[in-house]
């Protein structure tokens, strides 16, 4: 049960300093976060799209403590959109945003986050693409869903993320499927209490399948966020059973994890979108990647030993 320990460490300033200072950290982080600036990430975007893959871009950073930092996060996404425009990729390169970056946790955070994210959604629409609102811990979700609903009034293509380990998610999925939303389903990567979330892997997997069936049978656009081969196969079967064409759903996986599988799915004609993060404030994102999968943690530990 190392996952909860790692998630707790992701909030620790002391652990942030220790991990960031370790000489081995940067080469390992580069596996998951291929750049810190827009200039560094544009060649990655070109490389992946040339391989037939699609992307959702995440400017990493969550520890926002002032409105000025929230505005800076907004401006970072606007800069990214400006650089995407001449590439003419349309929906092949979309954005994923965490509303915490836009000031959601500050005083008046709901209104502030909506105010800051709206220009990003507008700018994305102008270049023919869209934005997906990432899910964070359960205390933020009512605000996220309300912002999602508000944005969809003008930009119905705006997506959102739901997390299979939360008890509430089956009801959320039914509502979103009925409304025709774009919905990414993930297992969940935050430390949640037993009062609100399944704690055992088999329970989470069963909930994932139930929720995915709801999305596939609904009116929306399901996005299967998983690296689990079994869940990927189940997703394909549920899509076939629901009569969905290959362009009526998609798979999503993280940059740096199962790259061969990205290419295999794309070669079979599936829409395969790579969640690609970049930026300097990488610590929280990186630690959640370690927590999600023991293999990621073993990779990091082996690197530390081999470099030590």
Layout: helices, strands, pairs:
Blueprint: H1 2-9, H2 13-21, H3 25-32, H4 38-50, E1 54-59, H5 67-84, E2 93-97, H6 109-126, E3 131-133, H7 141-152, E4 159-163, H8 169-179, E5 182-186, H9 201-217, E6 221-225, H10 229-241, E7 250-254, H11 259-267, E8 272-278, H12 283-292, H13 294-307
Parallel strand pairs: 1-2, 1-8, 2-3, 3-4, 4-5, 5-6, 6-7, 7-8
Helix pairs in contact: 1-12, 5-6, 6-7, 8-9, 9-10, 12-13
Could you walk me through the main structural features you see in this protein, from its secondary elements to its overall organization?
The structure is a single chain. It contains 13 helices and eight strands. With 308 residues, it is α/β, with parallel strands linked by helices. It has an eight-stranded parallel β-barrel, surrounded by seven helices. Helix 1 packs antiparallel against helix 12 (283-292), helix 5 runs parallel beside helix 6 (109-126) and helix 6 packs across helix 7 (141-152). 44% of the residues are buried. Residues 303-308 have low confidence and may be disordered.
Quick description:
Helices cover about 50% and strands about 15% of the residues. It has 13 helices and 8 strands.
Alpha-beta classification: alpha/beta
Global morphology = globular
Strand percent estimate: 5-15%
Strand order of the largest sheet: 1-2-3-4-5-6-7-8
Key terms:
single chain, 308 residues, alpha/beta, eight-stranded parallel beta barrel, 13 helices, 52% helix, 13% strand, globular, disordered C terminus
